[in-house]
Amino acid sequence: MQPRGKFGGLGIGSLEAINHGLLGKWLWRYRVEQGALWTRIINSIHGGNGGMSDTNTFKSQGSLWNQILNSFECLNNINLNPKSWNGDQTMAAQFLRSFALESNKQATVSERIQENIEDWERRRRPRGGREEEELGNLKSVIQQVQIHNHEDAWYIPSAPNERFSTRWFRQLIMERGASHIHTNNRWHKWAPKKINIFLWRLIRGRLPVRGILQQLGTTMPSSLCPVCDKEDESILHTFLKCDQAQFVWMRLALWWKISIPVFQLLEDVWIWIDNIPMLSNHRKIFWITVMAALKAIWDARNEKTFNNKERSKEIIFTTAQNLAYNWLSSRNPKFCIDITKWRASPID
Ligand SMILES: [Zn+2]
């Protein structure tokens, strides 16, 4: 998926950034709410500074806090070093000569700002030339600084009066290109964009099944599954538990000649697919067929819900096979298998 606009258009990239923006907010809170119970718990699990000293490598995505630290990794990538004071560098790095002359290396900006610059504690007076010139620059920077009588806080460079802005964080990530962000969001290049969006909504439980609509306060004649009329309709039911779905999964297993476990959660499906012992290329094709199966299940559900037309289970499965075939042949130049062969076996 290539970003379209400056900030990635409507691609999954921007969704990644939204996600990272939200996680970044927790990092912000961690900084601001030092001493709170939750930050102390984080420290006790992940070590002092919440495990942030170890920022060279991306952490596994396992825990939520690790995901947050990965957002922190993005922050570092965009030069928001927490040690920086004015812009991208520490003050010491910006004014090397003045810092070398400084006799109290621990002095704070607020202490120094209250004194006349000529009265600062120094090892010796600056000796003309570059030292004087640098001191002049330092003076002009210091003059612009206003010290407020409240605790230090992280601020947003473009809007110092604002507190953390998820929008700002997100834009920053998008400007830097979200492609390097390690994330568990997926974009399958062999599937159409709208199918990727469909999968994204499905993974996040954002498809309008009756159970969700009811939770949102929509009144409906029935909360039962429109396909089987047996159980309340939920995403789990529609895509895994409903007879129609179970049939499609069973046919998928036969077609691929693999055994598919009984899933209790939709998330288990993605974890399982990532761990099937399979060539990486085959796994990608398998993913596409799973996406096509889910789409065919959803289309059949909608056809029944809105047009009261029932599709046979076998037709739903054949539709999935055809969908996947069309996506692969139009998007993967190396995919040149005959449709009859494809229906017999998806891989040679
Ligand atoms: Zn059902």
Topology:
Elements: H1 12-32, H2 37-46, H3 64-77, H4 91-94, H5 96-101, H6 109-113, H7 129-143, H8 166-175, H9 193-203, H10 210-215, H11 235-241, H12 243-256, H13 266-275, H14 280-307, H15 313-331, H16 339-344
Helix pairs in contact: 1-3, 1-8, 9-14, 11-12, 12-14, 12-15, 14-15
The structure holds zinc ion (ZN).
Zinc ion binds next to loops.
H/E element string?
HHHHHHHHHHHHHHHH
The largest sheet is: none
Uncertain regions spanning at least 5 consecutive residues: 1-13, 76-87, 176-184
Hetero ligands: zinc ion
Sum up the structure in keywords:
single chain, 348 residues, 3 domains, 16 helices, binds zinc ion
Description:
- There is one protein chain.
- The protein has 3 domains: 12-82 and 154-180, no CATH class; 91-143, no CATH class; 193-344, no CATH class.
- The protein contains 16 helices and no strands.
- It is elongated.
- Residues 1-13, 76-87 and 176-184 have low confidence and may be disordered.
- The chain has 348 residues and is mostly helical.
- The longest helix has 28 residues, at 280-307.
- Residues 225, 227-228, 230-231, 237, 242 line the site of zinc ion (ZN).
